[in-house]
Amino acid sequence: MKPQERGPASAGLEALGLKVPVVLAPMAGGAGTPALAAAVSNAGGLGSLGAAYLSPDQITAAMAAVRGATNWPFAVNLFAPQPLPQVGPAAVDAACAELASFHAALRLPPPALPAQLQEDFGAQLAAVLSAPPAVFSFAFGRLAPDHLQALKAAGVLVIGTATGVKEARQLENDGVDAVVAQGAAAGGHRGGWAHDELAGTVALTQAVASAVSIPVIAAGGLMRREDVRAVLRAGASLAQCGTAFLLADEAGTSPAYRAALAQPGRTVLTRAFSGRPARGLHNALIAAVRHPLPYPLQNALTRPLRTAGAAAGQADVLSLWAGEGFAQASQGPAGRLLAALDPSAVQP
Ligand SMILES: Cc1cc2nc3c(=O)[nH]c(=O)nc-3n(C[C@H](O)[C@H](O)[C@H](O)COP(=O)(O)O)c2cc1C
User: Within a domain: residue 227?
Assistant: First the structure.
């Protein structure tokens, strides 16, 4: 691929020494593992550790596990801190009532909000900074100036997530080094916070690349090398792929989740599991939840159900995050899946 056929590579991106212009999407909640991140980095891409739901000690251990399996750069990803929403008891009761029959079927105690609703972002970031990775990425908002400065002072390349041009411009003004442009087809949570354009990935990449001067990383529905080529031509410097790695040998995708991905089905945007919109395979829990609490309350409320469902192999209560291209996901070692996304490979 000729250099002019893709977006700008900043000195920071160049220093990563990537052989394949593909970032493994961070995938918090089980699908992403240290082994998967290391395998992608070893194969010439940028592995990411989705650490948003990990405690500080778990983050330290997971980063050590990645470092034990690769000497190449990798990224760690967290969710930007959010103000805790205030909700009344009636809203909590309504959200619990919708989950009650699912709890009963799995012989769980009735649904209730736990005392700890989310991890403390400052403590998570401190764990990341105690052994700084080459790259830190984040979603769901903007970073406070002191957090951004602490990352920069540690020499970490910082990547924010935008679902539209306005958010991308704000992130650039804040001083991030690169921005993920997340198209509508993307699996998992919508990563923005202000205005989600829900645009096609190529169109969004073009719009963001012409609006900002930092490198753009395109995400959403990129399943084949042709898709990667298309976003690089549209102005992206890198492609970020999640769903393409869900069936990787090294992924933590549970057997029930893997089986659901192999079935014909459809993805939908839902707030049923976490209170924030996210794309996943449609299932019974999505159909039943009409009054989710705002994030992170619903996320905390549904956690016991998701944990028990995974153990019992019940896909109907799992958050089966997947992008619109899930039917094209392949099994195999992550290195081979990465090679299949390499835009520079010679056409057969
Ligand atoms: C299972 C799963 C979990 C995800 N978790 C995160 C996450 O923790 N942090 C994040 O920034 N993005 C997360 N995403 C979104 C990805 O960063 C990316 O936008 C998406 O995977 C791209 O679309 P694709 O899945 O079609 O490749 C997740 C996506 C999936 C499929």
Answer: yes
